From TrEMBL:
Family as reported in the entry's similarity comment: Belongs to the ACDP family.
Function as written in the Swiss-Prot or TrEMBL entry: Metal transporter.
Protein name: Metal transporter
Shown stretch of the complete protein: 368 to 519 of 785
Domain CBS span(s) in chain numbering: 90-152
Top-level taxonomy: Eukaryota, Metazoa, Ecdysozoa, Nematoda, Chromadorea
Organism of provenance: Caenorhabditis japonica
Cellular location(s): Basolateral cell membrane; Cell membrane
Organism superkingdom: Eukaryota
Length: 152
């Protein structure tokens, strides 16, 4: 039954980490900070259907801010503002978690309600230098709920 599957799904949260449910880096839709928000661009962004969009500078792994689609509501498309102008206006906090965070811990975090999407990073060791964090995905509450209701 569906209930049975949900209980199993919830139990499975216990030995899974964020890595299991995240959207992988390759599949992230993000935009460069210099992107001009002309009418064509705004349309394309809206058509992607995502609510929260990482903004990167230079390298797509270098996420510096977030664009919320609702931020575009008051935008005058004729002004041709750049993504970063909007980002600076709203200044949404970028939350980051480690790829080996247990899914149930991530769920508790999301339930607190302060944020609904986190960038997933892993620590990469480097020879003779300090380790660096590297972006490897993103995760939202939706991803964990899917895990619980076992719809994939
Ligand atoms: P299960 O063990 O339940 O079968 P799984 O096979 O889907 O789960 P997970 O270990 O949960 O594997 O990881 C999900 C995906 O995330 C895998 O496809 C794996 O390649 C990727 N992944 C896991 N750990 C890392 C990591 N440290 N860095 C990058 N990607 C990772
Ligand atoms: P909401 O449902 O709150 O309007 P949404 O549809 O943009 O937001 P979620 O429902 O939170 O996003 O997540 C749906 C799926 O899309 C999840 O698998 C999530 O990891 C993925 N996702 C969310 N934002 C992005 C993005 N910018 N790029 C790629 N995948 C994303």
């Amino acid at each position: 039954s569906d209930e049975f599957k949900m209980v199993l799904g919830a139990l499975e949260l216990y030995d899974k980490t964020v890595a299991h449910s995240m959207t992988r880096f390759e599949d992230i839709f993000s935009v460069p900070s210099y992107l001009e928000l002309n009418p064509t661009m705004v349309t394309q962004i809206l058509e992607m259907g995502y609510t929260r969009i990482p903004i990167y500078e230079g390298d797509p792994k270098n996420v510096v801010s977030l664009l919320f689609v609702k931020d575009l509501a008051l935008l005058d498309p004729q002004e041709n503002l750049k993504v970063m102008n909007i980002a600076n206006l709203y200044n949404h906090e970028v939350r980051r978690v480690l790829i080996d965070m247990p899914l149930r811990t991530m769920l508790e975090e999301f339930k607190r309600g302060e944020y609904h999407m986190a960038l997933v990073e892993k620590l990469v060791e480097q020879e003779d230098r300090d380790p660096v964090y590297e972006l490897c995905g993103l995760i939202t509450l939706e991803d964990i709920i899917e895990e619980i209701i076992q719809c994939e």
